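Example protein
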Amino acid sequence: MIKELLAPAGDIEAGYAALYYGADAVYLGLQKFSARATATNFSPDNLNEFVGYAHSLNPKRKVFVAINTVVQESELDDLLETLAICSRCCVDGVIVQDLGVAKIVRDFYPELELHASTQMAVHNKDGALALQKFGFKRVVAARELSQNEIAEIAAIPNLEVEAFVHGALCYSYSGLCLFSSMETGRSANRGKCLYPCRALFKGEEGEKHYFSMKDMALARDVLKMPAYSLKIEGRKKTALYVAAVTDFYRRLLDGKGEDYNRAENIKQIFSRPWCQFHFNGRDKNVVDRDYIGHRGLNIGQIKKCSPKSFTFISNHYVARHDGIQIDVSGEEKPFGFSLQKMKVKGKFVFEAQKGDEVEIFLPTQSPVLNVGDNVYLASATMVKGAYPYMKPKPNEYLQRQSVDVDVVVSSNKISAVSKGVCVETQGVFEKAKDAAKITQAIEAAFAKVGDTPFGLGHIHIHNPEELFVPVSYLNDLRRRLYALLPVESGKKVDLPKFDVRKMSVPQWVVKSDDAQLLCSGKFDDADEIIYLLYEGSQPDDVVSLPRNKIRLALPAVCRQENLWHKKIESFLNAGFKKWEIANYWGIHALPSQGIDLSFGREIYMLNSYGIAAAKEMGAKRVCLSVEDTFPNVQNLIEKSSVPVALILYEDVPLFTSAVCIRSNPCSQCLKGEKWMSLQRDGRLYNVLSRNCQTYVFDNKPFVFNDAYLNLKPDFYQVDFIYKKYDCDEALLIWKNLRCGKSVLSDMHGNLQRGQI
């Protein structure tokens, strides 16, 4: 199968570098709705010109725009403007996370191909099939998947699968990370993540970076990747990095083999330690607990050191002004400096060769180094100039808006009309000596579009007396006309309003993964009871509960589809008809008829179009996001086309991860459930390790206190999941919330911040 090499572009220079070094397609973001909000990103003019250039190449290259954040109701007009830009610039596809954005694209911008972002957490075949049915042409597989799991999804007919092959990794499943949002108000689902996964935590093994991932680098194993599109991460990286990585994988795909020197170049430009994540099976060696940030290329270990210099045998060429970094015990970041002085065989030199014993002199106020410390080449002047690339002249490939012009020449004036705009110039015009030449002159004058966004389409010249017009008059007329012409902003869409459901008296829902808690009789006054299933759940667990009250909830992550298909069948056969899903896989795994389906909060509902899409997919109820703001929650309750649930209490997983936090080898693991405690900046966190999956929680629960009394959703929901609750403890929380009393916690997410 022919593969697509997909490269990132945080700005137009990185885009040109990607194309020059062999990318078949480039993905990028605009100024809004990009999951890399802090990248430079593209302006509309940049996008226009870049797409024009990419499409001019032979073979034609594709450009995808990432509109991969969740969108609040008040932002829908800005979203339409962004989509209109994409349509006008003829991009080849849009990468989306928000179900509402997907519905708007599918319904009103069908010319834009829909790609499901990795933020949609597509981790199995069921999830991919559900999104394909909704209208997605491509899904981006979760990074956590193995080669075999990707192959299962890639076998779906008429669906393209895209998978990451190189770049930074997140500790949590993308789309299921709430750490930055809940703790700081800067949401990963909004492109504003502050990367708490890279932070230093105190735990049972000391102060470590327990969640700081290495970088993915499949290298030659990219040839085993069953996905169609091979994706390089890096929209916040430089054009130099993009060029080097694209070049490395292009050569591999073209059968030129793995180039060790080119791999070293990448590590010098930017690299954490490399791993292959879980591509070849579950791997625990994917976290770098001791250091964070760019490390570089390991070029040796210190043999001798003093306060002023250190000596090592270099396994690589080193030159003056190169960047050096050294792992320093007790420091979370390597110590780095620009190499200014070095000796080989006792003589000062400008460069050292591979195999030389090199003495490097340290800058003042350097930390204490030790024999055995690793030495890295973190930047190299030679590499900085190793990836030149060509790019077009400005405006050379601008996609211009075609305009038709009517020019009328009379004896005392000349006028030009286009798109209802008319400009004219007075003068005295006499008969031309050569009528054909004056016609050519008029056509040539109006064809000079310069840096305007217009291109001349058809020109109609009415000059019955064959009069001569000086070129200066024609140029002035053209400039004034083009200056007044309106620039088309793109497709105009008026979003229809949805019929709002009939409001009702709010009902109360309790949810738990503890069947004994639910069956204790403490929550008999609940209008509905939700039981979150796990691998060991059986119908008998909740057989004592009233069947009309019980709803079964599927987990957000399902990596054992056969097991869950059988479990779902057993509960269906036992007569359970109410279900809740936390990921799109549940839509395909459950029957399309005969059940009462609700969407859990993990499927983000931040706008009315997302809710309408959920309704279209069969949902009779949705749950609003716990990371939303109070004004948007209030807005959605008033506008929702289906009943909505509002969570008042939950131990919210900040991370949901396929990376095991336990240090023991997998062969020695007792599995089962294990709780650990971590601390950072005086704040406590609880970590649950269960069935090779890790959940991280704030020590305090999320609580929607006080203000909820002013809201009237259809359901108030109280969750006791993951953490084990004593029946009386849970009952007290339940009763306090039902009576409108506060539950003590300073964990309110973004409800009081007003932004996300």
